[in-house]
């Protein structure tokens, strides 16, 4: 049995649906990556990269090209984010977090909207790529926007993840990936907690914040 065949074999059943190993393992790593990102640990990026590699197999089994593309983006952005955070720690000794400016928010929203229209249009023109073109495109582009904001250290990163979760839960269940659907619900809770933690750090005096960030990023 090949590694790919094993990854896409059944692990157990959940709500009458079969959960495959790639869906379970990849999403557990994704949860770990989100929790590590909340603590601003450098380990968040290797965890995201490995999660992306495994989830490619899960989305391939569900015939969701946008999901596969999303994981390829996760891998690339994980490498870029790791380099961004390494540079931030070298420059200031900590990973700096802040709210994006209104101009940055506008560009992020506009880029997400334009990207969703472009990718959704491609999926619609080639139906074999995805059975749910617009939801698939939205999650693909939304994930890219969220990870870009995370790498920049913007608090808006958490809001972007919330927007992805709203569509991700029903799409995962309807695609035969129930574990992904359940994990999206857990993501929602972690995102709320992480958003609050990052927001508090933006209100902490700089000297105290640096001390806290150095401690949790070690």
TrEMBL record:
Q: Which organism is it from?
A: Actinacidiphila oryziradicis
Question: PANTHER family this protein is in?
Answer: NICOTINAMIDE RIBOSIDE TRANSPORTER PNUC (PTHR36122)
Q: Does the record bear Ion transport in its keywords?
A: no
A family per Pfam: NMN_transporter
As for membrane topology, the entry says: Multi-pass membrane protein
Query: Keywords for this entry?
Result: Cell membrane, Membrane, Transmembrane, Transmembrane helix, Transport
The organism that produces this protein has a lineage beginning with: Bacteria, Bacillati, Actinomycetota, Actinomycetes, Kitasatosporales
Q: Can you supply one Gene Ontology CC term for this chain's record?
A: plasma membrane
Q: What is this protein called?
A: Nicotinamide mononucleotide transporter
Q: Which domain of life is it from?
A: Bacteria
């Amino acid at each position: 049995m090949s590694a790919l065949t094993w990854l896409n074999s059944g692990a157990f059943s959940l709500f009458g649906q079969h959960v495959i190993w790639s869906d379970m393992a990849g999403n557990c790593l994704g949860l770990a990556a989100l929790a590590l990102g909340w603590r601003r640990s450098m380990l968040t990026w290797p965890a995201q990269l490995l999660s992306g590699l495994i989830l490619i197999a899960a989305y391939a089994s569900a015939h969701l090209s946008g999901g596969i593309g999303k994981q390829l983006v996760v891998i690339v952005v994980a490498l870029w984010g790791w380099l961004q955070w390494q540079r931030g720690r070298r420059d200031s000794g900590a990973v700096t977090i802040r709210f994006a400016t209104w101009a940055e928010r506008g560009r992020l929203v506009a880029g997400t909207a334009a990207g969703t229209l472009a990718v959704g249009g491609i999926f619609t023109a080639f139906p074999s790529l995805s059975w749910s073109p617009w939801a698939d495109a939205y999650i693909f582009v939304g994930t890219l926007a969220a990870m870009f904001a995370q790498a920049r250290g913007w608090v808006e990163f958490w809001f972007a993840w919330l927007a992805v979760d709203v569509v991700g839960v029903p799409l995962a269940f309807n695609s035969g990936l129930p574990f992904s659907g359940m994990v999206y619900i857990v993501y929602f809770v972690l995102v709320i907690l992480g958003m609050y933690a990052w927001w508090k750090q933006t209100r902490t005096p700089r000297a105290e914040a640096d001390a806290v960030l150095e401690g949790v990023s070690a």
